[in-house]
Amino acid sequence: MKLFLKIVKDFPSYLWSSWGSIASIFLFLAFWDFGHQIYGDLILPSPKDTFTSLIAILQDQNMQSEILITIKRALIGFGISILIGSFLGLLAGLFITASVMSRPIVTILFGMPPIAWIVLAMIWFGMSDTTVIFTVFIASFPIVFVGALEGTRTLEGKLKEMADSFYLPFSMKLFDLYLPHIFSYIFPAFISALGMSWKIVVMAELLSTSDGLGASLAVARSQLETSTALALVTIMIASLLLIEYLIFEPIKREIEAWRD
């Protein structure tokens, strides 16, 4: 609770410190408009036309439902990958045998193309939510697992010996020594897994469902509505940025305040 209240209190200053990121977005929009002037509306609609389509989509109640469906699927798959990946990664990091045995499995999961998982999930689960959620989970899981594993395996033995020599309570060793170190490895894995989830959910919906933003993107492609397709992509990117920078980044800053 104290951490939450501190994040809320420091939130305005955090937003002010993000002006550099906002400036980079405007620079991207400038390059986008430049590309539009070169290639035209069919290949690359202007930011203005895209945002006009975006506003129309956001005002459509049916499309609002499609957006929520996609975000729900992505968050469920991402949440499951965090829970299972973190637990198994920490467990494997504590035991060298488990760490060695998990290495080839993780390599296989990393090397398996997401499209292959989608095809297999369609065979196993049919055209359902489970197909999309499973694909998101299986694509994000190895990222979280490796982050938790590396964070646990790289705990310094001398640091633990020093903590034991001073007879520090277990709670102090856990929250002041072990977790900050593990968190520095696992949190970047969370961010990477979040981005992976957002990419995979659209691909899985495009191929295996009739609802969600992925299915809407397939319709826009078939009708050559490039501005609508870009607007749908913008919605996904914007939702990803909001979750990362308004939720995860403030938490990261507070937990990693010891670095300063």
Offer a few descriptive terms:
mainly alpha, 0% strand, transmembrane helix, 11 helices, 260 residues, cell membrane, MetI-like, single chain
Category from helices, strands and their pairing: mainly alpha
Count every beta strand, where a strand is a DSSP E run of 2 or more residues.
0
The helicity comes to over 70%
What's the rounded overall pLDDT mean? 82
The shape is globular
Radius of gyration: 22 Å
Q: In whole angstroms, how far apart are the ends?
A: 22 Å
Could you give the order of the helices and strands? HHHHHHHHHHH
Tell me the β content: under 5%
**Tally of helical runs:** 11
Low-confidence stretches: none
What's the story with the biggest beta sheet? none
In brief:
The chain has 260 residues and is mostly helical. It has helices at 2-16, 19-39, 47-59, 61-94, 96-111, 114-125, 129-153, 157-165, 170-208, 212-222, 226-255. It is built from eleven helices and no strands.
What does this structure look like?
The chain contains eleven helices and no strands. With 260 residues, it is an all-alpha fold. Helix 10 packs antiparallel against helix 11 (226-255). The protein is globular, with a radius of gyration of 22 Å.
